[in-house]
Structure formats: C-alpha cells, structure tokens
Amino acid sequence: MAGGALALDHMDNLTHSLVGAVLGQAGLKRTTGLAMPALIIGANLPDVDAACFFWLEGTEHLAFRRGITHGPPALVLLPLVLTGILWAFDRWQTKRGTRPEARLPVHFGWLYAMAFIGCLTHPFFDWLNVYGIRLLEPFSSAWFYGDTLFIIDPWLWALLIASVWLSRRREKAGAAKWARPAQVGIVAVLAYIGVNAGISSAAFLKQDHYVEETVIASPVPLAFWDRQMIVGQGGTFAIVDPALDYDVPNTVDQSEFIEAVGECLMEPVMVGAEGNSQAEAFLFWSRAPFAVRAPDGSVILYDARFYDPRARDRFSVALPDVRCEPLGEEPTAP
Question: Are residues 212 and 233 in contact, defined by beta-carbon separation less than 8 angstroms?
Fold first, then answer.
C-alpha cells in the first residue's frame, strides 16, 4: 500500500500545538501576556475548516479542507480574531479581579504578532506532506505539495516534546538561559525537515526517466529515511520501492517491488463523474486518481497516495452508474 494509506487529512494537531509551544519556550512568550495561548491556538487556528464536517457529506470535505482558511486573507484575519478574543478575556479577568498576578501586561500589537506567527506555522507544516494545501486561496485553487514528512511523525514529536520539556524544566529551576533548549530544538526540527527534504529529492531524482508522468515521493510511517514512490499517469500507477534498482527491471522480478493499481479507463470515468458532487470533489482534490472495477462492473475511484481498499469510505468514491472500461480498450462512444 502507499505510505499515505493510513494518513489523516491534515498534519496532526499535536504537532501544530507543540510547534506553537516550542516557539513560546524559545522566548516569544516573554513578549506579552497570553503570548503562549496565542502561539498554540494560532498554530491550530486554520483547522477551523474542520467544521465543514457538520454540513458536508462523504468526500466533499476533501475539496474544502486546506483551502480558504489556509490562504493569505485568513492568515491575516484569523489571528486578528484570536487576538481580540484573548484581549477581551484579559480585560474580563481584570474586571472580575481574577487576572493572574504573574501574567505580563497584554499588548495588543505583540499579541497579534504572536497569533500571526503561530498561524503562519500551520500552512508550512501542512505543506510538508503529500496531502497538499491550497496556499493561495481564494486567489488560486492550485495545490502545493512538500512530499517531505509523513502526516504523523513520532520523530518530530520527540524533538518538539524534548525541547519544550527541557526548557520548562530549566525555567522552573530558575536557570538564566531557560529558553536555550527550545531554541536548539527549533534548529534541530528545521535540520530534520531539511534532511527529509533531501531524502525525498534524492528519491525523486532516481525517477528522472519518468518526467512525463506523475511522480510522488511518499514518506512512510516511522521509517523517515524511506520513501514509497508513486509513478504513473492516465489512471494507472505503480508503487515503487526506491531502494531497488528499478532502472534495469528486466533483471528483477517486478512483483517484488511494484504494486500496480488502476484497472479502468479514466476518460469515461471523468465524464460519468460530472454532476456527482462526491466524485467532483474527489477529483478536484486527487493528485493520482485511478479507478478499479467493482464486483458489479461499476467503478470505484481511488487516489494512489491513500489507497487502502479496506477503508473505502474516506478516500474513495463509488460510481455505481459508471461502467468500468478496462485499460487498453478504446472508450465506448456515448
């Protein structure tokens, strides 16, 4: 299966929260009162689009998530809303006499800057995986992909948790340079991302003879040093192990390292998907779409990044009224 088959549809919120926390422990929380909640909540704020699950059905969320709330206008306005709420909360506590004495004075400008910085980290980390993000909404609906980290990365968690914990421990002990572990942790996280970007780039370059096709370097769970390459076009894809010498496939049993997916011609599937909100949303989101034949001869749409026939509801769409025309055949005239 593709490395992303078990993935969620966004970088996990624990990672986003830890990123906000490590920035605060690196010293930013000393800029103003309530800087830490501004950083942590701001780092999660673009995921307010998850509310779409209340009014969208099936796979329609795929076309909505990581869009309008992750684009430039939202990244300016959402921190402003958060800042206003935190500012009002501080004033409310002051009037009630419940404001903590240890809290620093709240400066609206600095508070907005912290919420803005936290919010900016969100699209950056979302961009790093194969799911993609529409960074320019509402000006452009183009998808951008980093192909660098798996959506849930325990190694990244470990770096972030250790950095925050060591910094907090030093701070409670009264150490003068309590922010240093978090600062070192930020450098380590950036280095880890850089190493993973290099691994993906190297795996991608090994596929340079497939430049006319879709090529995806898909990180896998836990083994950050490995990639599963998804290569193909026109409704058929191969999942390739880049550790093997696939440049000379005649000398190797391809069944050992290639899983082929895709059974149906995509042209009639695309035509049959018109007017179907589920299928149109899926195809708008899909980066490597292919179709397989259902037992009754109809079509099920998948994406090679998230192919798991055991979990059909989330990353697939059934088209019971569209017949599967096998690859290699000419499309049937309507």
Answer: yes
Q: Which amino acid is it at 37? A: P
Q: What are phi and psi of 228, to 5 degrees?
A: -105, 120
**How does pLDDT run across 267-278, given as a tens digit for each residue?**
999 999 999 999
Give the C-alpha separation, 68 to 133, whole Å: 10
Calculate ∠ Cα 228-9-320, nearest 5°: 90
3-state secondary structure of 70: helix
Q: How far apart are CA 17 and CA 77, in angstroms?
A: 20
C-alpha torsion angle, residues 261, 263, 265, 269 (rounded to 10): -90
Can you tell me the mean pLDDT for 180-203? 96
**Token pair for residue 88?**
């009002």
**CB of 33 closer than 8 Å to CB of 110:** no
- 229 pLDDT band, cuts 50/70/90, is confident
Please give the structure tokens belonging to residue 236: 């058929």
- The band of 330, judged by pLDDT with boundaries at 50, 70 and 90, is low
Q: Measuring CA to CA, how many Å separate 174 from each of 36, 163, 170?
A: 19, 17, 6
pLDDT per residue as tens digits for the range 145-179? 999 999 899 999 999 999 999 999 999 999 999 99
DSSP E strands, the chain: 214-219, 227-233, 236-240, 258-261, 289-293, 298-303, 316-323
307-332 b/e with 16+ CB inside 10 Å = b?
bbeeeeeebbbbbeebbbbeeeeeee
Rounded-to-integer distance, Cα 105 and Cα 216, Å: 49
pLDDT given at position 231: 86
Asked whether the CA dihedral 27, 31, 33, 35 is positive or negative, the reply is negative
Q: Report the chain's C-alpha Rg in angstroms.
A: 23
Output the pLDDT for position 246. 47
CB count within 10 Å of CB 149 equals 23
pTM to 2 decimals? 0.88
